[in-house]
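Hi X.,

You mentioned you wanted examples for the new student's onboarding notes, showing what a folding record looks like when two proteins sit in one file. Here is a clean example. The first protein comes first, with its sequence line followed by its structure tokens.
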Amino acid sequence: MTTALPSTWVLAASAFNWTPDVIRAERAAPDIAAGIVTDGVASVIELEPGQLWRSFPVSADPEVDALRRVLDAAGGSVSIVGASLDDWTGARQRRSEEERLAFLLPQLRAARRMGASGVRLPIGQAGEALLQRLVPTLHELDLVLYEEIQGQQAPDSAPTAGAIDVIAGIDDPSVRLLVDLSMLMPALPTTYLDELAHAGLPPELLARLVDEWRDPATTGAVVGLLRSGGVPPAIQTLYMNLLVRFGRSAAADLRGILPLVGAFHLKFWDLDDADLRVSAPIRDLGALLAASDFVGTLCSEWGGHEWLVDDDAADMTRRHLALARSALLDGCNAA
């Protein structure tokens, strides 16, 4: 029985988990990000520059350097940096391919200056032509561009499958997939279901969400209530998670794309794991990866702060990382 994870698997924490702290602005955003390392939550972190620096997307060198010095001094490092590709100008005109490239290049250079190993974009947003043009720059900067799939973007769903085929066709290690475990949800988070119940969601739909989340027919019921105008206004935005952010895939569905995957987000919403709804997908992932040659990061990313706004991000992340390590080990030993 193994008692340690493979050395090629790196557990990390995302600064996104601290979004409510950034919004409250009681501390500067770079100090919050640095605190993940200096407070001992994790030594490897993912960053969201759009939350860090007013100069983003052309991040000012002094701002980047100041944060890197703090992380270096604390023995920390940055794995992946969240990038942005704004396809529209302020005049509501679509950017040309040259303008899209120019928008992204300063972010790549800032990521390299930060010491990051990669940047992240949503799956398919860049498109094949821009990805091809970026490959030489990625090589020059020693960066990997990750395209992220999450929620209901199953590997065989359109247009996700087409975007995955593009990455496979480029066939270059500088362009890879990042898989978010929001794809692998055996059940919905209990605290999320509580929010829906308290807002007055129809009991019959709530019961279906509790008992039949993985039934594809449940989507029809979710869409039906939305189209009828019956979603309580207080949870209109939260309700859309059912159609976008929460997935129904299984770990086995990832087997065919695993050679293209270079990183994972271990997405969690709350830590109610009484029936293993949090740990089971991580355990299943561990078993899948144990039989592979995976090298990369497995990053704790908390999405539940959308409604658990008063919970402490550091405490939630520490506890989740401990749970994740244990679940991954269970998966390795079960493989």
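Then the second protein repeats the pattern, sequence line and then tokens:
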Amino acid sequence: MGRVAELAGVSVRTLHHYDQIGLVRPSARTAAGYRAYSAGDVERLREVLAYRRLGFGLREVGELVDDPSTDAVAHLRRLRALLLERRDRADAMAAAIDRELAVRAKGLRVTPEKQLEVLGARLYDTIGDAYTATRRTDPRIAAQIRDALGDARTVLNVGAGTGSYEPADRDVTAVEPSAVMRAQRRAGAAPCVAAAAECLPFEDRSFDVAMAVSTVHHWGDPMAGLREMRRVARHVVVLTFDTDEPGWQDRFWLTRDYLPEFAAVLADFPSLAAMADAVGARVEAVPVPWDCADGLFEAYWRRPAAYLEDHVRRAMSVWTKVGAEAERRAVRSLGDDLGSGRWAERNSDLAGLDAADLGLRLLVA
């Protein structure tokens, strides 16, 4: 027990307590009769300590590690998803602090409301509000997704967020790991399960189709999530992004001319070919309309002034990922080019287009 305590970075007293309450009981004995931990005991202890360090209470931890439907791999995937969500919250808090520092550096007053945005819960609520304000269903993109769903009656929406693109005429079950996003779902929306894509709590082939819209890039392990979708559904429909084409970041003037850091955001993202192979999908291009109602990152390709608006950018996770310094530089440069006419001159070929192929792709399996 002493050696395990040393390796785990906890006290022997803690291990004794876990033994007494039945959370982690050593199942082996040494030749001298001392309690000893088997490999399985150590694995369980690892899970207990990981959940504890994420802030779970002992009762919650006990329920998690005793769940008979969850094995060690599922626990690791769940822990990874929780850590990534916490990282995103920390990134968002850092971005809020950067914005407040910039305001204070100018000698301007920071309102109490803005000060409270630095707090994690309040900040995440603010980001969620931005999603509901600008991330609406675009009917043209929705029509393409609806066609891909075919005649499916039962639909699993993975990484459902606030519920955009959920078909109203089907039996939908949503999956969303973020409590804040779940709270933003409209009254009467499909029932929503708290779970991560990498560990879906459903039996094999429970649904006609599993769909995922503009969410795969947020998953801790996209390939594992896609395989899970394929496991629980007969068909799969995924709206994602193509990074296979050489020079893909130059398709969109914003990443080409103002935000080269975007390439690093997707540096570890799986290739489109690999994602398609994972679910056995065909690939369809999804054009972005010039007046796209959904405020996704590429939505304003013919309305560049929108990217100067803070509330528009707040509904796009890219800006948090690239950091406040890159965001300030990009916004400042774009504003200068719009004011001088350089942007219009450089992108004159866009003026007559009704839609643009900016890399959005639909995987249909």
